[in-house]
Structure formats: structure tokens, C-alpha cells
Write a structure and sequence with these properties.
- The protein has one domain: Rieske [2Fe-2S] iron-sulphur domain (Rieske Iron-sulfur Protein, 3-layer Sandwich), CATH 2.102.10.10.
- It is an all-beta fold.
- It is built from no helices and twelve strands.
- The termini are close together.
- It binds FE2/S2 (inorganic) cluster.
- FE2/S2 (inorganic) cluster binds next to loops.
């Protein structure tokens, strides 16, 4: 394991990302809501460049007491990464597909130390 320098914390704005390469791996490092996340830039569906996808808030469905859909809204707390090839979504917090834990991104640990952001590879 090695810590790879990604950049300075001050370079990252909320919702920004940076792709870094180490040996044969391309890793996307994201800053979302003041947290850092890192994933392999390969979608588990068909290998698409998932780390180049959109960052979207989770869509929440509100139900009545009878369990009928009332309305939809965007979450203010949970964000997903959307693969640009076929639209599979992955939770930033876990790297997992919201509909199935069987689909997940390969995650990497991140660390911020004295304004420097690192990813452990
Ligand atoms: S390759 Fe990512 S959704 Fe198909």
C-alpha cells in the first residue's frame, strides 16, 4: 500500500473531482459535501469510465399512509455518482448501487493531512 498525493484540499470545491493514475489504475477522487471519496474509474456493469459521470442528488419518493406515491424530490444529504455509459448509480458513502449491494465500485481510502489530499492504493 502507498499513499498517492492527489492535490491540495484548497483546490477542491464541493462537487469537484480529480483523476489520478498509479501504475495501471485510474482513480477518481471526489469532494462531496466536504468529504473525500475515491473509486476505480471502471464501472462494474461494463467497464465504463464511471468517475467521469455526473454527481446527482438521490431521488426520494414520498409515500402516503396507503403507500401511494405522492411526490418525488431530490435529497439534500445523499449524492450519487452516475455512470456516463448506461446510467447506473452508485452511492458515494458506500460505492454501492442503491438497488443492489451486489454492484459496487472499488473504493480507496482517502486522507487529508495539512491541506494535502492522499489516496491509499
Ligand atoms: S458501464 Fe457503467 S452503467 Fe454500463
Amino acid at each position: 500500500m502507498a499513499d498517492v498525493f492527489v492535490g491540495y484540499r484548497s483546490e477542491f470545491q464541493d462537487g469537484s473531482r480529480k483523476l489520478v493514475t498509479n501504475d495501471r489504475l485510474e482513480i477518481g477522487v471526489f469532494c462531496v459535501k466536504d468529504e473525500f471519496y475515491a473509486f476505480l474509474n471502471s464501472c462494474p456493469h461494463q467497464g465504463g469510465p464511471v468517475c467521469q459521470g455526473r454527481i446527482m442528488p438521490r431521488v426520494e419518493e414520498h409515500l402516503s399512509a396507503e403507500q401511494k406515491s405522492i411526490r418525488m424530490s431530490f435529497s439534500e444529504d445523499e449524492f450519487h455518482l452516475v455512470c456516463p455509459w448506461h446510467g447506473y448509480e452508485f452511492r458515494f458513502a458506500t460505492g454501492k448501487h442503491p438497488g443492489s449491494d451486489a454492484y459496487g465500485l472499488r473504493r480507496f481510502e482517502t486522507r487529508v493531512e495539512e491541506d494535502k489530499v492522499y489516496v491509499r492504493v
